Amino acid sequence: MVDLLYAVGVAPFKDMAGAPAFLIEVLIGGIFAGLMYSLVALGFVLIFKASGVFNFAQGVMVLFAALTLVGLLERGAPVVVALALTTVVMVALAFAIERLVLRPLVNQAHIILFMATIGLNFFLEGFGEMLWGANVKKLDIGIPDRSFIVRGVQINQLELTAAVTAAVLVTLLAVFFQRTRIGRALRAVADDHEAALSIGVPLKTIWIVVWSVAGVVAIVAGLMWGAKSGVQFSLSLIALKALPVLILGGFESVPGAIVGGLIIGVGEKLGEVYWGPLVGGAIENWFAYVLALTVLLARPQGLFGEKIIERV
Amino acid sequence: MITTDRRSRRDSLQGAGRAGAPPATTLADTRDGFVRRATVSTILKTRVAGGVIYREAGQFKTTYGADQAVFPVAQDRVVVAAAVVAAFVVPPLVASDYWLQAVLIPFLVYALAAIGLNLLTGYAGQLSLGTGGFMAVGAYSAFKLATAFPHLNILVVFVLSGLVAAAVGLFFGIPSLRIKGFYLAVATLASQFFLVWLFNKVAWFTNYASSGTITAPDRTLFGVVITGPNSTAAARYLLALGLVAVFAVIAKNLVRGRVGRAWMAIRDRDIAAEIIGVRPLRTKLLAFGISSFYCGVAGAGLVFLYLGSAETLAFDISISFLVLFILGSFLGAAFIVLMPIVLANAPHAIGLRLPVALQKQIELMVFGGLIIFFLIVEPRGLARLWQITKEKLRLWPFPH
Predict the structure, then answer these.
(1) What are the extents of the domains in chain B?
(2) Is residue B174 pLDDT above 90, yes or no?
(3) Cα-atom radius of gyration of chain A, to the nearest Å?
(4) DSSP characters over A98-165
(5) How far apart are CA B305 and CA B326, in angstroms?
(6) Which of A47, A107, A114, B271 has the highest CB neighbour number within 10 Å of its CB?
(7) Chain B residues in contact with A102 (beta carbon < 8 A)
């Protein structure tokens, strides 16, 4: 018993103190991994905020964007053209989803829309692979996947790029939401569908815009994840990794997605490195969920979610 | 101030949604009160117009018992009784082993899991994505029980493994007291991933099998081999059907009684329910426990009656989604079981030869597309279709 307590409560911290450079490396790895999760979680948040739809297909949208991008690159398109075309494809996808899925399901309960997005998940998975093939593809965006060493701490160049990209993306989104006309309309819709409609905000357009923006976010996420681990089916599973980030940060909060991602990323890495061996490893599938759940028990709306006020 | 405004907006939105269509949490719309009221009005109508076959006019209920019966209309009783008898007698005589094994048995197993999920999600309003995990608990405890106590009756094994799953479900249901809606749905994923990881990791659950699979042993019931490699598909079919029949009756009686009313009250507005005296703690946990019991028995059935042997892979997240879709599609469990078979064979039937990969991708697309299609056409699923059929039948063959 004492041994167990020691192994759980003391030994990991001794390990941390014993090798601070390694600890910092683990922390940095966690931060980067967390930002990668945030990129996926951002797409969820945007759509949930503006339409109340819990878009389970976000992970597959990332895969789809990455597949399209790689497919175009493989056919010899220059990077800029490929990116532009992929954006066009994602916007077209947003149009199609709004017209074929969301509009017929307007005013249905959340769970129905949620199930529809799971259906969309299956559809896009098949569609993407049919168009571009199911084999693993390498996505080379010109950033070498190598590390350099700063004061004895290894830093991966690709992960650093991803982190910077995530930061830029979040800033852009914040500006877009706060400073532009469409952004204001988006916030109005998120705040109150009916009031927004009554003052003439076109709901359909807003939905298309927000799904398009989520599509663009998916491109960025697909770019980063694809460069890191290749473009393949398992890319769509990162949606499952982004979900704990989402509940931890709060469904409606863009900053929440970022902070949640950081907490999950760091917590997951620390747990895996220092406590994982105690239970035989491979805990990354559920550890993030347990972490998020613990926070949720204290704050049921996540760290940054809108305060839930309940009344009859 | 702002937050309160938001809240009231949300209320009014929900109100608007309800005015348009009944709340969709009634995935299986069986609010008895509502149905009964409809019946009264249609009885009046049929007296004037007069349906021919499905005629309720003249069936007077003179006791409370008759009024509260599960099937108050005589025709319903006859049809359902006939259907049950037919289900027990016809397939074992007529259907080939392939049909029993590949279609009917999985159909029954998934249906049982869907009944369980419907109690939790449809009636108590707690969205859960942990079905696969709870089914895994049932399957692995059934395996452990059956191998540790070889002389234990297989039915007892099934019930006990359901109870184990219920205990696990109770534990994972605790967050539901504080977490609601999609937050809860994601939180239940924790149970899904944790349980599957646990069974994968701890070799004790598989009796230290090097392959990591659990295999259903041969067990007999009334002298007939009913599980394991030496059992016939017909025997397993009958056991699965028996389980579904018994547990469906129990579920039906649960939801039309005090427990079911408490669940629906919690679902429709939990705070209001609490104020009128429904205890949320007990009610929600009971829903999780009973639902997990059903999923556990279904999981045991999945391995013992359908697959024969399984790895944890059989219980991954996609099975949770499949069971959820059963609630949403108006063909119910039949859709989930038949769809892959139809899709796999359709290209051959029309003389099309497709590469395997392409066919797989098209299957996925059609499957996803159909789910969306069904949701658009009839979001309230099978139960609603049944209701419509009944209303149509009441008037048949007259148009009004």
Answers:
(1) 27-60, 82-317, 329-379
(2) no
(3) 20
(4) IIIIITTTTT--HHHHHHHHHHHHHHHHHHHHHHH-SS-B----S----EEEETTEEEEHHHHHHHHH
(5) 20
(6) A47
(7) none
Q: Is residue A95 part of a domain?
A: yes
Decide if pLDDT at B33 tops 60: no
Q: Give the nearest partner residue to A293 out of B6, B190, B375, using CB atoms.
A: B190
Please give the tally of structural domains in chain A. Answer: 1
ipTM score of complex: 0.82
Nearest CA in chain B to A237: B317
Which residues, other chains included, contact B161 with Cβ-Cβ below 8 Å and sequence gap of 6+?
Answer: B137, B138, B139, B141, B142, B145, B296, B297, B299, B300
* pTM of the complete model: 0.82
Closest residue in A to B324 (Cα–Cα)? A115
Q: Which helix (H) or strand (E) holds B101?
A: none
- Is residue B247 very low, low, confident or very high in pLDDT (cuts 50, 70, 90)? very high
pLDDT digits (tens, 9 = 90+) for A45-92: 888 887 778 888 888 898 899 888 888 888 887 888 888 999 999 999
- Identify the residue among B193, B339, B374 best suited for mutation to test binding to A, counting A beta carbons within 10 A and taking the highest: B193
Instruction: CATH number of the domain at A198, please.
Output: 1.10.3470
List the single residue in B24, B363, B368 with the smallest CB-CB distance to A119: B368
Cα–Cα distance measured from residue A175 to residue A186, given in angstroms and rounded to the nearest whole number: 13
Q: For B380, which DSSP code?
A: T
3-state secondary structure of B58: coil
Best to test chain B binding among A120, A123, A129, A234 (most B CBs inside 10 Å): A123
Residue A311 lies in a domain: no
Is the C-alpha dihedral spanning A178, A181, A187, A188 positive or negative? positive
B361 and A129 within 8 Å at the Cβ level: the answer is yes
Mind telling me how many Å the CA of B14 is from chain A's nearest CA?
Answer: 9
To which residue do tokens 């980063």 refer?
A224
CB B131 within 8 A of CB B122: no
User: Which residues of A fall within a CB distance of 8 Å from B4?
Assistant: 309
State the DSSP code for B207.
T
d(CA A268, CA A282): 11
Contacts of A111 in chain B (CB under 8 A): 24-25, 27, 121, 127
The verdict on A311 touching B (C-beta cutoff 8 Å) is: yes
* A310 falls within a domain: no
Q: What value does the mean pLDDT of chain B take?
A: 79
Q: Which residue has the higher pLDDT, B328 or B293?
A: B293
Q: Which domain holds residue A58?
A: 2-298
Flag whether A230 is in a domain.
yes
Any chain B CB within 8 A of the CB of A279? Answer: yes
As a whole-number percent, the residues of chain A with pLDDT over 70 amount to 93
| A122·B368 Cβ contact <8 A | yes
Split at pLDDT 50, 70, 90, the class of B52 is low
Q: pLDDT class for B17, splitting at 50, 70, 90?
A: very low
Q: How far apart are CA A51 and CA A32, in angstroms?
A: 29
Are B187 and A293 an interchain contact pair (Cβ–Cβ within 8 Å)? yes
Using the beta-carbon criterion (under 8 Å), do A279 and B201 form an inter-chain contact? yes
